[in-house]
Amino acid sequence: TMRGLLSLVLGIGLGQAALCSEHTCAEGTKKKADIDATDDAGAPATTCCEVDTTKCASHACAAGYKAKTNSAGTDLTAGGQTAAENCCEADTTKCAVHTCAAGYKAKTNSAGTILTAGGQTAAENCCEAWKCWEHTCAVGTKAKRGLDPATTHQTADPAGTCCEVAKCSEHTCATGTKAKTGVETTDQTFDPAGTCCEAAKCSEFTCGAGYAWDDTKAAEDQTANPTAACCTVDDTKCVS
Fold it and tell me: pTM surpassing 0.70?
């Protein structure tokens, strides 16, 4: 009305500030509690509003990621997704989007590094070579002799670069088994126990104190518990 317009003009002329009730908070923020009657102090965004902790505006994206466009007002868990999924997307200028080549891994804490920082390539900024000490050689193989595992790069073929076939002479047979005859220089293969070892017989086992050897079991396998398989309790001795 004309009266309302006149009042507004007069109010401005008298230096009357707007109230928070007249301010609309931006996406991702909300009105502070019981703030409507407060003078906005010429800074309504900070005087009248606060971050809405249920919205993406309150979520800090991880290194290498940035806030999705127009996501400030999106619910953190909208659609049953996580805040990271709803609010963030990979920053295509950062190492987080770079895939390192075979034999290389992402540098520690490099996700937020600019791909071409310092005039270097993405591979130089984002990746570093896996070293042989970080590779576990397969069963039947061992770390190569003569290389420094702390400095040698795995390359795209870590097994070939870092490992070599182990011989039976380097394998320890399990309890109840023994090394096969004449296999010292034989490759262990993926089954060193089967390639290098065979069952030991009770005739080759010496019973411990308090036990007597049972000669009726001489031809039997020692098994993983040779005392139980090959010996009997000596009733003339104290056995706990």
Answer: no
